[in-house]
């Protein structure tokens, strides 16, 4: 791996908020693409954080700092990930489900969807099923996209499906689900419409949903 990309990984691991923006700018100056910065610098750093967190070698405040470092870099590369001048192809309501505070993956999904021309309404984190319903009524959206990172919160996705059924608007929308513990079979079992394993395919699925 190039030195600058490996320094970016280290900056994420160390939660180095002082240097990560400069390092991102240096990587761009060295002509690395925003995608390379994300895939070969930031993501390997965050994967390492996940391993250390699981092993009990890193704790929540350190992981939060790593997350903030990654977000700072992502802010910088965001305009490059979003292609300029794309025409809007559909509207998506996006949120991390109730009880879940993880938002880095959701934010990446947003970036990728916007990059493909989707109009994304970001409902944030800890989004209750009723909030998805309320937003669906207020916005003329074609897709509801739910993210979950915890096995304990992915079950909230089924509550979103049920709440939309109860509100009588389920058939008007495509329900998409994703996040590390979510699978195609889980998606099928809760009656959601589409599953995507990563942010790029989430954008493709949303476009396909709007086209169908
Ligand atoms: Co948390 N955490 N965390 N955490 N955390 C995980 C998820 C965990 C796997 C760590 C571990 O034990 N190895 C574990 C979950 C275990 C499980 O349930 N299976 C875990 C845990 C247990 C917890 C707490 C319970 C810890 C505690 O307090 N004891 C707690 C829960 C808080 C809560 O939510 N209520 C907690 C807290 C936190 C922090 C707040 C400290 C922080 C979040 C900060 C933030 O997001 N702003 C945090 C972090 C950073 C992580 C890890 C290290 C990294 C997650 C991440 O951002 N990855 C994570 C371990 C890991 O994943 N390696 C972990 C990078 C991101 C780009 O990937 O989000 O997977 P990801 O998104 C991917 C795909 O999943 C997909 O696209 C993205 C890639 O292209 N995707 C979608 C995501 N959403 C999608 C939606 C789609 C389609 C695709 O369609 C709609």
Characterize this entry briefly.
This protein has helices at residues 3-14, 20-29, 34-54, 60-81, 104-115, 129-138, 156-166, 184-190, 199-211, and strands at 90-97, 118-127, 143-147, 174-178, 194-195. The protein has 212 residues and is α/β, with parallel strands linked by helices.
Helix content: 55-70%
Strand-residue proportion: 5-15%
Kindly state the number of beta strands. Answer: 5
Distance between the termini: 41 Å
User: What profile does the largest beta sheet have?
Assistant: 5 strands, parallel
List low-confidence stretches: none
Shape: globular
Q: What's the helix-strand series?
A: HHHHEHEHEHEHEH
Give structural notes.
With 212 residues, this protein is α/β, with parallel strands linked by helices. The chain contains 9 helices and 5 strands; from the N terminus they run ααααβαβαβαβαβα. It has helices at residues 3-14, 20-29, 34-54, 60-81, 104-115, 129-138, 156-166, 184-190, 199-211; strands at residues 90-97, 118-127, 143-147, 174-178, 194-195. It has a 5-stranded parallel β-sheet, sandwiched between helices. Helix 1 packs across helix 3 (34-54). The relative contact order is 0.12. The mean pLDDT is 91. Bound molecules: CO-5-methoxybenzimidazolylcobamide.
């Amino acid at each position: 791996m190039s030195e600058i990309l490996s320094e970016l990984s280290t900056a994420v691991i160390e939660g180095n908020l002082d240097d990560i923006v400069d390092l991102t700018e240096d990587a761009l100056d060295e002509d690395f693409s925003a995608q390379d910065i994300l895939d070969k610098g930031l993501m390997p750093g965050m994967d390492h954080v996940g391993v250390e967190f699981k092993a009990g070698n890193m704790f929540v405040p350190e992981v939060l700092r790593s997350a903030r470092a990654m977000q700072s870099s992502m802010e910088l590369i965001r305009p490059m990930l979003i292609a300029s001048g794309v025409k809007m192809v559909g509207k998506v309501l996006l949120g991390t489900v109730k009880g879940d505070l993880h938002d880095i993956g959701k934010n990446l999904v947003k970036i990728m969807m916007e990059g493909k021309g989707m109009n994304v309404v970001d409902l944030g984190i800890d989004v209750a099923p009723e909030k998805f319903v309320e937003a669906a009524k207020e916005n003329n959206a074609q897709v509801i996209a739910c993210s979950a990172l915890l096995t304990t919160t992915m079950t909230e996705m089924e509550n979103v499906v049920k709440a939309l059924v109860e509100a009588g608007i389920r058939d008007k929308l495509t329900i998409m689900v994703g996040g590390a513990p979510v699978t195609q079979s889980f998606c099928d079992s809760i009656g959601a419409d589409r599953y995507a394993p990563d942010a790029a395919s989430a954008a493709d699925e949303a476009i396909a949903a709007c086209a169908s």
